[in-house]
Amino acid sequence: MNKYSQDISSLIDNELDDKTVINEIIDDAELQQQFSRYQLMGDVMRNESPDVDLRIDVTDGVMAAIANEVQFDNVVPFTSKAKDNVTSFMKRFGQYAIAASVAGVVVISSLMVNQGSITDPNATPVLNTVPFAGSAAPVSLEVAPSETKNAIKERNQHLEALLKDHQLQLQTQP
Amino acid sequence: MSERELDLQLIKRIQEGEQEAFSLLVRKYQTRVANILTRYVRSSGDIPDVSQEVFIKVYRSLPNFRGDSAFYTWLFRITVNTAKNYLTSQSRRPPASDIDAEEADSYDGSGALKDEENPEAILHSQEVKRVILNAISNLPDELKSAITLRELEGMSYDEIAQIEGCPIGTVRSRIFRAREAIDKQLKPLLEN
Fold it and tell me: FRET pair for A132, CA 20 to 30 Å: which of A88, A108, A124, A168?
């Protein structure tokens, strides 16, 4: 067992913050194979490869094909400072624009409310936050992820079915 | 590090000239790409070639990738377009309806193109699945539970630790031991 084996497992689960492990995997053919097999286990368990020939491994072919391609030495990565500067400027500009719009709406609304109170002092306020009848129920942002639960249930049922089928096959084999 | 962060980090490395980092992206996504291609490419013998073409296109397009969408969504679009181009080159019409990236993984393939040309491939794939599922069913309960909660339920180590009532380090170790046990059965099969 390689000392990085457990790190590969954690990396696949998105539970590893040590970026140096990626260097080790990239530089080690055996670790790369292990990475592929661990990935394959998950794909099979989740049934993400129902009609796929699992012998297919195009990694070597792809890497050989791109070996002669121009490397991206001159490409500015998407996290570049230049882009960040443009993004932050646009973000700040957008925030100012939104703030100005909201302020304008508030001013106009308050003017309209004041005009309304002069002409009709008994009229219902525009911004009436008190319900007409009963009491206000608390607002909850909790939304039941029914689809997710169903998907999980289906996956579990599928795995159970696969396991049962497999056990049945074992029993029927001579 | 989330899945998206890992992908972006690998892409950043490639964009900075570290070509070898691309191999991890290929290893990570090739089964999913092949699975999408089975919806379009009738002959399983063509899937490796079309898969390879997809990843070469992805590599060439990486300078244009800006990380606005998830890498998989972007990869999915390139895969579907490559599959359609393949069908056109074969003088076949693409399917009338498309699947999108969100439903690609859960698409059950009913009515999809089935391979009846390559029984050897089917047998081998069934054997791989049999070995993996057999290894899982023989795992001790605590390992089986940990790997199932992670791979099927998609839970984080922290969530699994709360359910199992054990430290995160134990969860990490159990999931790794489960994979190691499965790998002992799987590795010889794939090497042969």
Answer: A108
Indicate whether this model's pTM tops 0.80: no
User: Does A13 sit within 8 Å of B31, measured CB to CB?
Assistant: no
C-alpha closest to that of B181 among A47, A9, A167: A9
Is the domain defined by B118-192 classed in CATH 1.10.10.10?
yes
- 0.90 surpassed by complex ipTM: no
CA B41/CA B31 separation, integer angstroms:
15
The Cα of B94 is separated from the nearest Cα of chain A by a number of Å equal to 19
Looking at CA atoms only, how far is residue A100 from chain B in angstroms? 28
Could you report the per-residue pLDDT of B85-123, keeping only the tens digit for each? 998 888 766 665 565 655 555 544 433 435 456 777 788
Query: Which residue is closest to B54 within chain A, CA to CA?
Result: A62
| CA distance readout (Å), A156 to A25, A152, B98, B154, B163 | 32, 6, 27, 12, 17
Start-end of CATH 1.10.10.880 domains in chain A: 1-69
